[in-house]
Amino acid sequence: MVLFRYYTAVALLALPSVLAANPLNKDRQGIMEQRLVSQTERWLQLQREGNAASTNVQASTPTEQELASQRWLDSYKHSIPERYEQGSEGKIGN
Known about the structure:
mainly alpha
């Protein structure tokens, strides 16, 4: 029984290298990569062409636009520090 467990453990440890050396697995891996690239390309194409875009117009009110612009402009009031001090995360004011 101990010998069987030993051989099973050795076989399981050697399995990844055997699978990697198998040329059929490399072909499968290449096919999977092609499928992933193709799927990504399809998503990018949908995004670029807008074929799956919503038909509902999304608009913001002038007040919302003004508040968003003001928030963006206010972000420039805070300088970017030369260095960040360890342990100062989340503290307001220096």
